[in-house]
């Protein structure tokens, strides 16, 4: 934790009186675990996104795991995904004894490249599915992924952890594949502290996920305590998980959902400000400008030959100026686990590696003030000037 009171944190949730009052209402209700609030959050989320089923869970990681399990992914199966993502996307494949097959990214968007995915599908026809990730909220090329899904008859699971609530051609990101999973982690575009939501139009998969998210019990706990049937009656149909969302979290989520469109407008304005203020700097490559973007992350890249400092020193200088900076992502294929288990080499995914070596993330969240935004851009300019290579 940085104790400098002027320090601008990298991320901060936007929470108001509405969320406070909602939590107090739940605390006073006498029901803290999964109950009426979760049911309402799910039905509100399903109608917001226009999907048949929305299932609240305690994290997007749990949601991705449940979704893969419900589509029958198991030991020895292979799923193509990006190395340029958070570890959750690939670790859930391992939870099931299946193996991730990495493919390189499109360097303009940081997103999994459909062309690279198809190369993997052609090499190995036993691959069972694809998990594209809308990195930072930038929409993946879903048209191409849907074509690959049809052509190779495989599962398409969207990791939509970053991308709520953005629409592309009239459909929400996360709602185009067989299932999609949103994250409500504390730094995400809407939050419940910890939490996630699975959406799917596949009723059978939804039923399976709903049973498996709570121990493999065939009736939900809340139902058990409120329905007319004897409260003690339930059957265990499989060795399930403990992935349910508590009502306290759902009550925050319901308020955040009402504000989601307003939050998005504010993040868009910040992105516009960064484009305007930083667009002419020759030592930075800004992210691709795109209207349908959730702007969960704003990820510029340094242009190495214009600077005497590398990315790490550039970031260090910004942090010393009081700006919270992060890096998304350290590629999975250079992490010890994946390197050792699958023998990945850094150069296996050259665009992923190149992006990682140059990228950094600037703060972008609704509560940033104009004064803070001015400080951020002036600190970036100052840092560039300090390290500018003299020609
Ligand atoms: C791309 C991606 N997928 C999945 C997750 C997992 O989200 P959660 O923390 O809700 O499990 C994250 C979390 O940061 C993420 O960035």
Describe the structure.
Helix 1 packs antiparallel against helix 9. The chain starts with 16 loop residues before the first helix and ends with a helix. It has two domains: 242 residues, Aspartate Aminotransferase, domain 2 (3-Layer(aba) Sandwich); 127 residues, Aspartate Aminotransferase, domain 1 (Alpha-Beta Complex). Helix 4 links the parallel strand 2 and strand 3. The mean pLDDT is 96. The chain contains 13 helices and eleven strands. The chain is an alpha/beta fold and 391 residues long. The chain is globular and about 80 Å long. The protein binds pyridoxal-5'-phosphate. The site of pyridoxal-5'-phosphate has 14 residues, from helix 3 and helix 4.
Task: Supply the CATH architecture of the largest domain.
Answer: 3-Layer(aba) Sandwich
Which small molecules are bound? pyridoxal-5'-phosphate
**Outline, from the CA principal axes?**
globular
Helix count, DSSP H or I runs of 4 or more residues: 13
Q: What helical percentage do the residues reach?
A: 40-55%
Unreliable parts = none
Mean pLDDT: 96
Question: How many domains, in number, for the residues?
Answer: 2
Measured by DSSP, the beta-strand proportion falls in 5-15%
Radius of gyration, in angstroms, nearest whole number: 22 Å
* Structural class by secondary-structure content: alpha/beta
Strand order of the biggest β-sheet: 1-9-8-5-4-2-3
E-strand count: 11
Largest sheet: 7 strands, mixed
């Amino acid at each position: 934790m940085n104790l400098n009171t002027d320090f601008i944190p990298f991320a901060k949730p936007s929470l108001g009186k509405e969320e406070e009052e909602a939590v107090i209402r739940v605390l006073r209700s006498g029901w803290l675990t999964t109950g009426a609030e979760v049911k309402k959050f799910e039905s509100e989320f399903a109608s917001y996104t226009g999907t048949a089923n929305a299932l609240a869970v305690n994290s997007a990681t749990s949601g991705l795991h449940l979704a893969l399990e419900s589509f029958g992914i198991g030991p020895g199966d292979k799923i193509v995904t990006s190395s340029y993502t958070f570890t959750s996307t690939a670790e859930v494949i391992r939870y099931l004894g299946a193996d991730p097959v990495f493919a390189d990214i499109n360097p303009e968007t940081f997103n999994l490249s459909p062309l690279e995915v198809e190369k993997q599908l052609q090499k190995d026809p036993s691959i069972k599915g694809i998990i594209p990730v809308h990195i930072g909220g930038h929409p993946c090329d879903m048209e191409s992924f849907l074509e690959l899904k049809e052509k190779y008859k495989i599962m398409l699971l969207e990791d939509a952890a970053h991308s709520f609530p953005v629409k592309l051609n009239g459909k929400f990101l996360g709602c185009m594949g067989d299932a999609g999973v949103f994250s409500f982690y504390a730094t995400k575009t809407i939050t419940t502290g910890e939490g996630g939501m699975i959406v799917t139009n596949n009723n059978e998969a939804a039923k399976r996920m709903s049973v498996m998210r709570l121990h493999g019990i065939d009736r939900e706990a809340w139902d058990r305590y409120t329905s007319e049937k004897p409260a003690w009656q339930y059957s265990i149909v499989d060795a399930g998980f403990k992935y349910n969302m508590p009502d306290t979290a759902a009550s925050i989520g319901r308020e955040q959902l009402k504000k989601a469109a307003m939050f998005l407008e504010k993040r868009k304005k910040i992105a516009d400000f960064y484009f305007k203020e930083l667009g002419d700097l020759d030592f930075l490559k800004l992210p691709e400008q795109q209207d349908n973007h959730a702007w969960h992350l704003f990820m510029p890249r340094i242009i190495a030959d214009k600077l005497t400092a590398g990315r790490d020193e550039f970031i260090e200088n910004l942090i010393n100026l009081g700006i919270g900076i992060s890096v998304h992502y350290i590629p999975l294929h250079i992490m010890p686990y994946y390197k050792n288990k699958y023998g990945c080499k850094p150069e296996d995914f050259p665009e992923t590696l190149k992006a990682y070596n140059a990228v950094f993330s600037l703060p972008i969240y609704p509560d940033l003030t104009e004064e803070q935004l001015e400080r951020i851009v002036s600190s970036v300019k100052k840092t560039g000037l300090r390290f500018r290579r003299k020609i």
